[in-house]
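hey m, so remember when u said the tokens were messed up on ur end? i reran from scratch. heres the input so u can diff it against urs
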Amino acid sequence: MKKSANIVQTIVFCVFIAALAILCLVTPSKEFSEQENRYLDQAPKFTFEKLFSGEFIENFEGYVTDQFVFRDSWISMKSRFERFLGKTENNGVFFCEDGALISRFDKPDASLLASNINAVNKLAENTDADIYLSIIPGAVSIWADKLPANAVNYDQQALIDDIYSQVNVNTVDNYSALSAHSDEYIYYRTDHHWTSLGAYYGYTALAEAMGLDVKELSSFSPETVSEDFYGTVYSTSGVRWVEPDSIEIFVPADGVSVTNYPNGKPVEGVVYDMSKLEVKDKYAMFFGGNTPMLEIDTGAEGKPRLLVLRDSYSDSELPFLFDDFSHITVLDLRYYKLSIAEFIEANDIDTVLINYSADNFSTDNTVFRLGF
């Protein structure tokens, strides 16, 4: 009887494995994973040279892993099981209170950080424009009380203080502005960015540093444009049990003209690209997402001209500055490779804002271009 049961179990198992293998073979390959927000490995081209070097086997393993049938369901099942076992982190993402997913922050490379600080000081030497450095702490710092017990991170507040102590430019105290509102919805729970509310508090810190009049929060009428946003940290974590985020717009785009330079040539841009709300990367709704250069005419005649050297945190903060600057130029150093000092002089820039998250400023290997 026992032998018969073992035979039945073996047959069932073999049928199950065969069925999975057949499904994997007949299911078309996917190029992009919306859940993981990345391109998936495709079937490698076979050559004997790649076979004997081991490259083909390695690439084929990646292909099978990425294209495995019901991949998203298996990932979700795995993460739930690990959570049940008490695991508090996966792929560098902490499982936190209130359903928040927060990326771990590791100690930055000292030489790269020193290079980026030096580039800021070089820019200050090369231009007479007023320069402001705004380093934005992440949820891992401001929401530290939500982290699981014994979560190990490098201290972002200490890092920002150290950076500010070494630069010869004006600095913006985002940390105090955000920590004063740490009990509010200032970061997305599934994404690495701040929310529009968090961006507002960042704007207040920037306005105070620049001597601008700070618009009260009560003067805005936020509009919720999405309630089903799952961001980058959700994609990385493997977690599939958390609730989605919502996205809000605080500042209307009336009277604002945007020119985008996605490929070096000007095309009409937008402040809010509502079509992005239909895709996975909904945060790209702000100005359409990453691009080399934006020119923004705000309609605020007689006000100064601002240059923003940005990472993606800037995108949701920029609208709060529309009333204070007549023209805002936005450059992404990952794409713009010419002299920043010469750009400032040629375009009559009055004020420069270097606006980066703590994570990006300490890891981005293109910040050195500030010194050109």
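this time it looks ok to me. The two ends are 81 Å apart (CA to CA). if urs says something different then somethings off w ur setup not the seq
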